[in-house]
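Q: What residues go here?
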């Protein structure tokens, strides 16, 4: 077995262990919350709409659309959960489906071992820091952050549609200053992932701009997301900054969706669907920013002294 294959094998074994730990952690927290009667306005069991959302978003995520922006869009349009709980719910609910994706799709791709491991570790560190910050943010700040995140996601989808993403080179790893730069960028991407910016497209752009073979983005991106999400989700769970019923719905609906998309459907003509997603994501971003503006005006009125 080559060193690269050996490293990937250990990473997959570690991912299985991490996924098992996270599933147990989430299940215990869910059971405690359910027995306590849950929180006001936050059901402990998923609705049919939340489960269908988990199925649909993870189905298209497996085929290349992405799940964070689309889930945020659905949660906002149908007012399924409060805005301040969306980032935590995205991470907690999509973690297990993403781990299943990684276990299915990660192959023996010739990526230089040091580059692969350091970029995964940096994304996990960024997610740990980012989740701790995001979990304690007020509603308006989260609305502004998610609005910006959706705009970034829409721009990346648009660049993909217009074929303006960089083509990349042939390198399978990075060294020296470029490696340090890539690790630093993946740290930031890991932190932003906790706010709702998917890591796949930015990671693909990053490695391509640095002259790496775009194929090398797949193990880096898959590994980063699959490892960082349990870490970030544990912090959201510990702080209670998520909607339990919606998170369970995303998980329960997402797992069979990943299996169906990966083993039965395998591919779909997604060009027209991506244009629709770009339009609706931009609309959801606009509604979030408008809600944040209304929140600011309301807060100002409440704190202004009477004449």
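A:
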């Amino acid at each position: 077995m080559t060193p690269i294959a050996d490293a990937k094998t250990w990473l997959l074994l570690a991912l299985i262990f991490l996924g098992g730990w996270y599933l147990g952690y989430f299940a215990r927290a869910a059971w405690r919350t359910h027995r306590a009667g849950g929180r006001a306005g936050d059901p402990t069991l998923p609705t049919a709409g939340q489960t269908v959302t988990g199925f649909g978003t993870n189905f298209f995520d497996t085929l290349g659309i992405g799940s964070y922006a689309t889930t945020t869009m659905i949660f906002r349009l149908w007012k399924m959960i409060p805005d301040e709980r969306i980032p935590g719910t995205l991470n907690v609910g999509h973690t297990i489906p993403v781990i299943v994706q990684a276990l299915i799709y990660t192959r023996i791709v010739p990526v230089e071992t040091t580059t692969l491991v350091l970029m995964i570790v940096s994304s996990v560190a960024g997610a740990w820091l980012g989740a701790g910050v995001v979990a304690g943010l007020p509603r308006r700040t989260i609305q502004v952050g998610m609005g910006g995140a959706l705009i970034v996601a829409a721009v990346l989808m648009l660049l993909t549609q217009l074929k303006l993403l960089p083509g990349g080179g042939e390198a399978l790893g990075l060294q020296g200053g470029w490696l340090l730069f890539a690790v630093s960028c993946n740290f930031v991407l890991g932190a932003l992932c906790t706010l709702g910016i998917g890591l796949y497209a930015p990671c693909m752009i990053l490695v391509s701009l640095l002259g790496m073979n775009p194929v090398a983005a797949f193990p880096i991106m898959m590994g980063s997301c699959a490892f960082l999400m349990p870490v970030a989700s544990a912090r959201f769970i510990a702080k209670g900054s998520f909607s339990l019923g919606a998170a369970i719905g995303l998980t329960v609906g997402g797992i069979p969706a990943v299996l169906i998309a990966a083993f039965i459907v395998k591919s779909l003509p997604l060009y027209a669907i991506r244009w629709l997603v770009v339009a609706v994501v931009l609309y959801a971003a606009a509604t979030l920013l408008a809600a944040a503006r209304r929140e600011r005006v309301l807060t100002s009125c409440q704190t202004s002294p009477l004449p």
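A: Context that may help when evaluating the design: The CA atoms of residues 102 and 233 lie 17 Å apart. DSSP finds eleven helices and no strands in the chain.
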